[in-house]
Specification:
mainly alpha; two-stranded antiparallel sheet; 8 helices; 6 strands; 72% helix
Length: 255
């Protein structure tokens, strides 16, 4: 058996992964809060933006955390299409389904349950899909997948509950840190259940090292987060039909 070290660089990668998950959650929850106060296309667009922000944060959290992973007796490579393209798509699409369920759900309790389960499946699915992208000399097994899934569902439900019940920026910030902690905990819970059986070999491994993703990840994610933040800050808050009607009525009275 090979020894799997989850923090080969000390506390650096766990701290950075938590920060990435929290930033994605902050943008996603902020967009969700504003979406619930909007109608029509404005609500849809903000919910989709929220899903992409949270999904990107989840994917980036896993990637940064994996930078600190090391297995004694073998190098680690990653299947680039499986980890980057498919993993990100799964995270955004499945999280999007959960966010939309909450955003458009008439019964908030049932919508929260469906949204939490769906989003939790997205978080866990992203994790195990990325784990399937690992390439090393040996085999990888998971002993407690159900535990990690339960943590993911709990994290997602708590985050969506926060989106429904928080309104102030301070409350969103606190909820984002909590979600970042929950998502990161899900990752490390899943990693703690990983067992690696190393089979020594001189054969070259396919795929790319984690460090080869650093520069494009930093540039791409930085640009995305900047544009998402700008969208949320600069986009006007849409007034609902009731507010428009009330304004028109007040204007008529003043005349």
């Amino acid at each position: 058996m090979g020894h799997l070290d989850h923090a080969a660089y000390g506390r650096l990668t766990p701290a950075l992964s938590h920060a990435m998950a929290s930033v994605g959650a902050a943008l996603g929850l902020r967009c969700t809060v504003r979406a619930l106060a909007a109608t029509g296309a404005a609500r849809r667009n903000r919910l989709l933006t929220a899903a992409s922000a949270i999904g990107t944060g989840i994917w980036t959290m896993h990637f940064v955390a994996m930078l600190g992973s090391h297995v004694t007796g073998t190098e680690i490579r990653h299947d680039v299409p499986l980890m980057t393209l498919l993993g990100l798509v799964v995270a955004v699409v499945v999280v999007g389904a959960g966010v939309l369920a909450v955003g458009y759900g008439q019964g908030r309790g049932s919508a929260l349950a469906v949204g939490g389960l769906t989003t939790g499946l997205g978080v866990a699915g992203m994790h195990y899909l990325a784990m399937a992208a690992l390439r090393l000399h040996g085999s990888v097994s998971h002993d407690a997948a159900a535990v990690a899934l339960s943590v993911a569902v709990a994290a997602a439900t708590a985050a969506l509950w926060a989106a429904l019940h928080t309104r102030t920026p301070a409350a969103v910030a606190i909820a984002s840190l909590a979600m970042g902690t929950a998502v990161s905990s899900m990752h490390y819970t899943g990693m703690a259940a990983v067992a690696v059986r190393v089979v020594p070999s001189d054969r070259a491994l396919p795929g790319a090292t984690a460090m080869r993703f650093v520069f494009p990840l930093a540039v791409g994610l930085g640009s995305y987060l900047f544009l998402t933040a700008a969208f949320d800050v600069l986009a006007p808050t849409a007034a609902g039909p009731a507010a428009v009607g009330e304004s028109a009525s007040n204007a008529a009275v003043r005349k």
